[in-house]
Write the structure tokens for this entry.
Amino acid sequence: MGIFAALFSGVSGLQTYGDALGILADNITNVNTVGYKESRARFTTLVTESSSSSSFSPGGVGLVSQTLIGKQGLLQASTSATDLSIDGAGFFVVRNSPQAQDSSGEILFSRAGSFTPDAEGFLQNTAGHFLMGWPVDSQGQIPSNLGSLDSLVPINTAGLTGTAEATDLVKLRANLQSSQSVSALEATYVPTVSATNMASGTVKPDFERTVQVFDGQGGAHTLTLAMLKSDVNNEWHVEVFADPAADVTPIAPLIDGQVGTGLLRFNPDGSLDLTAGTGTSASLLSGFPINWTTGAASSDISIDWGSDSDVDGITQFDSISALISSNVNGAIFGNVTGVAVGKDGAVTALFDNGLTREVFKLPLATFQNPNGLNRRQGNAYGVSDLSGNFSMVEAGTGGGGSVAPGQLEASTVDLAGEFTQLITTQRAFSASTKVITTADEMLDELTRIKR
């Protein structure tokens, strides 16, 4: 009888709209949850089998929940360098485990990027999920097996050690006075003899300046660049030596702490002449191998004197000899002061000596159907048959979005829309109760017919 079927329809309405209320309540209470993706209640009819097209058998209503995981939330600025979001497709790869070193923890995927260091320096979000990334080796390379979860490690910002950088390039801008008189000692000048060279102090240079360089251990050393005008026009003798000389072991035939000697030659217009064979000595252009006596690894330092036939480096004009500027790379040993994350997902360590070094790279996991992922505790998701398998890509490649450092992805919940749905769901629930009470009254009328 249709009255009984109406009762069942009303009951299905109560259950369905009650479930819909739960979805709306979850959305509303997570309106401020970072990276939360709203769920929607989708209603569908329930149809019982009918033996005739002219008759109708009510079945009621059913509910299918749909979480809009692929929907992008608004990116909001944050003051923390480790607050991260994704501008575009993709998910952070996280591990759900009580400790970062627990490799048995489940790998999940999340866009909740409010990461902070734990007591051991591992980055975890508010749900306790640890951020995973590719380690970067000393050559700046990441593992070749990018698609394997075995290539990932928990990202730690406290376990980074200090670093130093050896000097390998010195850039100079200077002028040597063209009218400089030739020293009487130039006639007997021999750079590889202590009694007649500038490194020993026997011959006074016409121009002398020092620069500070660094070895591979971060040790600072002083190199002196000494120049003596030659009796040949437009030509200057050059010696580069350590001060003190005991800092280096000279390579024969060099002596007295020398690391390089040679000739600088200039064109008649005052520009540098680097022409092979006739200009600057090749030894001054090939770099200076230096054996430090401090135990640090050997260095190979090149000096950029300037461009051939140009005035962007060392020049020879008739004004007082002077060093205009010098630029030396390398740095002393420094400790980690923080980390920075780039749009490409590169996690870079910042050192107090001004150096930076890439230490990790964040992968982004992409899915053919992100809306098919399974919801997990802590605003994370797991792989399902509907989502398909994941692909791990570098940020900005392979369909993945870019990492937005210093920003958090807001919840996708529209509070005004949720309250509107709340009202309509309440009205639909009340209408379902009215169906049940009406059917009950009709059944009561039927039972009173026999009286």
Remarks:
- The longest strand covers residues 220-229.
- The radius of gyration is 38 Å.
- Residues 2-68+412-447 form one domain.
- The helical segments are 2-29, 282-285, 415-447.
